[in-house]
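User: Could you go from structure to sequence for me? I need the amino acid at each position, not a summary. Structure tokens:
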């Protein structure tokens, strides 16, 4: 009898532990922790970054040795990059001396399929390593050294998403402040939205039943914005870009349940000295004051580079 009671108690304890644990949220997955992680994921001013592995490329190399460079590329923003969304290419060398293969554009997501952006499951974002090599270096006769300044160019397509919560009050002067749930005010948006281009501020005005929004855009990265239709696989080549391709961003702005009309009407905003502005209007009808997200999507290509000067010397013979 005593043994049976002990078995029953053990079974009861096991069942209790299983049922009590099944309803628990794993560490780091409760609402407060997720809120903090979301804030981290949805902020920041970086997109794609690249660094050299140490001594790759080397500062000095013999002409009979292989020229090898390994680039580590990271997606520190929150937009995923597919195989055709990001490329790295090397320029700045004479293809008659260093094999042209060394400068062939390579996908940032090579062998991965997708170079993931940061998320609640991966707050660091994805990374990859790309190897560039030239086994064939040919110095012209009588030339003892060659000193090219290698230019590593990254071109990628990126998307910025901003969702500031704005106050809509079509009865702005008709009721007391105590009856309102929110006040119409400008929204500061420092810290970025997890991309090199960000919305820095949204101004909000009410003109009767019409809401007017001023959306300020800024390039926070160390690169240049390109029109989203440019060819990112060959954008490292100077002949592929014109001034019309520079500093152009495609945008959409929307509000739940309302039509939004914006200027520029083309849906393309140009930046000057790294800043630009969109003006949007929406007819809201008559309603009590309420808050709602203003959904802003910016689509653009981005180009940035880093350089390293190397020395190729003739092998003693």
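Assistant: Here is the amino acid at each position, in order:
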């Amino acid at each position: 009898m005593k043994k049976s009671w002990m078995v029953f108690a053990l079974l009861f304890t096991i069942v209790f532990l299983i049922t009590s644990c099944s309803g628990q949220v794993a560490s780091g997955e409760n609402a407060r922790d997720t809120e903090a992680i979301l804030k981290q994921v949805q902020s920041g001013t970086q997109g794609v970054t690249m660094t050299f592995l140490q001594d790759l490329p080397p500062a000095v190399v013999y002409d009979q040795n292989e020229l090898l460079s390994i680039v580590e590329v990271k997606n520190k923003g929150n937009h995923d990059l597919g195989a055709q969304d990001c490329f790295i290419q090397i320029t700045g060398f004479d293809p008659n001396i260093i094999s042209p293969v060394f400068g062939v554009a390579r996908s940032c997501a090579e062998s991965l399929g997708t170079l993931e952006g940061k998320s609640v499951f991966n707050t660091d974002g994805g990374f990859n390593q790309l190897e560039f090599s030239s086994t064939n270096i040919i110095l012209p006769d009588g030339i003892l050294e060659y000193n090219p300044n290698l230019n590593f160019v990254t071109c990628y397509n990126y998307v910025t998403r901003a969702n500031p919560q704005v106050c809509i009050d079509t009865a702005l002067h008709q009721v007391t402040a105590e009856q309102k749930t929110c006040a119409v005010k400008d929204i500061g948006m420092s810290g970025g939205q997890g991309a090199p281009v960000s919305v820095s501020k949204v101004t909000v005005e009410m003109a009767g039943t019409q809401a007017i929004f001023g959306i300020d855009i800024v390039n926070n990265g160390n690169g240049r914005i390109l029109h989203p239709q440019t060819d990112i696989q060959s954008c490292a080549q100077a002949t592929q870009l014109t001034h019309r391709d520079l500093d152009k961003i495609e945008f959409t702005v929307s509000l739940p349940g309302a039509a939004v009309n914006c200027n520029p009407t083309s849906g393309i905003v140009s930046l000057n000295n790294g800043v630009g502005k969109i003006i949007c209007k929406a007819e809201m009808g008559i309603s009590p004051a309420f808050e709602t997200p203003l959904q802003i999507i910016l689509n653009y290509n981005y180009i940035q580079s880093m350089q390293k000067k190397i020395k190729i010397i003739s092998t003693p013979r």
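One structural detail worth keeping in mind: Residues 1-27 have pLDDT under 50 and may be disordered.
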